[in-house]
Write a structure and sequence with these properties.
Layout (H helix, E strand, L loop, with lengths): L2 H21 L12 E3 L4 E3 L12 E11 L6 E7 L2 E4 L8 E3 L13 E3 L8 E12 L4 E15 L6 H64 L1
Parallel strand pairs: 1-9
Antiparallel strand pairs: 2-7, 3-4, 3-8, 4-5, 6-7, 8-9
Length: 224
């Protein structure tokens, strides 16, 4: 039936969207970290470095360094390696938690979480991400770093860029949903039209067969 291949072609865009939705949950996305914390609240220091070759196994470690606003040198205060975390600076003792990749040595997210932020936490943070890619014949080591200039404020403020980005996010979500609805309506109409055409063709074939049978019967009677 001609409607069969056409039906499959029309459903391919919708099926691809459905299949891509659950797959995107595990995707790695490098986002710009927040730079403003509120005193006495928690704050996430974000450090994400995605692996470009997802099929290549790897191991990674993360080290964090801090330089207060009145200091000139960075000091090492946190490390995470082989699923173990270590706080090495007494200023952050009992105030840090691992907020990155879980249950794996193949880290892509090296973020940490600061509890009970104080004004003394204002300063520059540096995340150093060390990764070893394990190939069949050799290993390849890469090092990436990210710098975060953190400002601690007494009360949360929202900048214009944050507001605009949130608005754009909701506009994009609504636009995608509307596009999906329009696409589904279009596909439904095409499928319905294909079905009606198939019915008309079947009816025409039936009438043609019936007419031919009637003519044959008439011819037989004349012959008799």
């Amino acid at each position: 039936m001609p409607a069969g291949p056409e039906l499959l072609l029309l459903l391919l865009p919708v099926a691809s969207l459905v299949l891509q939705a659950p797959l995107s949950r595990g995707a790695c996305v490098e986002l710009d970290p927040d730079t403003e914390a509120v005193v006495n609240e928690g704050f996430k220091l974000s450090c994400i470095f995605c692996k470009m070759r997802g099929e290549v196994p790897a191991v990674a470690s993360v080290n964090w360094f801090f330089r207060a606003w009145d200091e000139t040198e960075f000091s090492h205060f946190y490390s995470y390696e082989d699923k173990r975390a270590q706080v090495v600076d007494p200023r952050f003792e009992d105030r840090l938690g691992w907020n990155g990749s879980k249950n794996t040595n193949d880290l892509q997210d090296g973020s940490i979480y600061i509890l009970n932020v104080t004004f003394n936490d204002t300063g520059t943070y540096q995340c150093i991400f060390s990764r070893i890619l394990i190939y069949s014949n050799y290993n390849f080591q890469t090092t990436s770093n990210r710098t975060i200039m953190l400002n601690v404020v007494p009360k949360r403020t929202r900048g214009l860029a944050s507001i605009l980005s949130e608005v754009m996010m909701y506009v994009s979500i609504i636009g995608l949903q509307l596009w999906l609805v329009v696409e589904m309506i279009y596909c439904y109409r095409k499928i319905a039209a294909a079905g009606e055409e198939a019915l008309r063709e079947s009816a025409a074939e039936y009438l043609a067969i019936a007419s031919e049978s009637k003519d044959n019967c008439a011819g037989v009677q004349v012959a008799e």
